[in-house]
Amino acid sequence: VGVLKGAIMVMADLSRELRFHAQMDWMVVSSYGAGTKSSGVVRILKDLDSDITDRDVLIVEDIIESGLTLSWLKENFQSRGAKSVRIVTMLRKPTLQKVDLEVEYVGYDIPEDFVVGYGLDYAEDYRNLRDVAILSPTMYEDK
Ligand code: PRP
After folding, report:
1. 56-69: b or e for each residue (b if 16 or more CB lie within 10 Å)?
2. C-beta 9 within 6 A of ligand 1
3. Which of 22, 24, 65, 98 sits most deeply, having the most CB atoms within 10 A of its CB?
4. Cβ of 62 less than 6 Å from ligand 1
């Protein structure tokens, strides 16, 4: 299950490396309420098309920051009766993590810099960059 939109590149590349049949599904989620990304309450904007009862689920993410989104999603999938729920993320920012979250597969642990590219955006820009890059703070700090 890819979590849109950021996971699109990871999903595209990872899925083509799998040497077994895997079905792909997608979710779109958004933080709900307080306005901050990391409120921990998640609103489903697009739900799974498939029934995951008794299925082995791998959640595919681009980045984990607070961990709240994935923690919520993992629990949600478990409550739907998934046989197993594992997580793969390209990037993780351990210093921002707010909840204990077991992540089976981590590409890179990175510092708190704002990163863009390869699915990651800044105000919807830069997702299509081939590489992951650190966005210069001059792009978002008050001048
Ligand atoms: C990002 C990322 C995760 C979430 C991680 O998505 O793809 O879903 O934030 O943050 P957390 O660990 O603090 O919960 P975003 O809301 O930016 O949406 P996008 O994938 O459409 O860019």
Report:
1. ebbbbbbbbbbbbb
2. no
3. 65
4. yes
